[in-house]
Design goal:
Helix content: 55-70%
CATH topology of one domain: Arc Repressor Mutant, subunit A
Radius of gyration: 17 Å
Number of helices: 6
Strand order of the largest sheet: 1-3-2
Distance between the termini: 39 Å
Number of strands: 3
Oligomer: single chain
Amino acid sequence: MRADEKICGIDPDSQFVELAVEVFGMLADATRVRIILALRGSGELSVNHLADIVDKSPTAVSQHLAKLRMARIVTTRQEGQRVFYRLENEHASQLVSDAIFQAEHSLGGIPRHHHLEAEE
């Protein structure tokens, strides 16, 4: 393999940098972050169940889910009239977790997630 050939897009001159910025833009909304957090531990949920969890109207949650679906962050499964949403892959969940961990660092002191790592 030649040194100038890139296997992955993790490089400052990668064609994926702009797409990554779009992903961050998609995640720059508290309701969408809450939806991702709700889905990460639940497998799949309906719009109404997600609306209850994130304390928003089903209409608002549905609009956020449509955007997340267009961005391929969530995917759907239909069962009769009901549509269930789940995360497309683990990456959005990891991004949200890392952002929350970074936010904990901004508060100063030893973040909670470092306490948890020490206990393991």
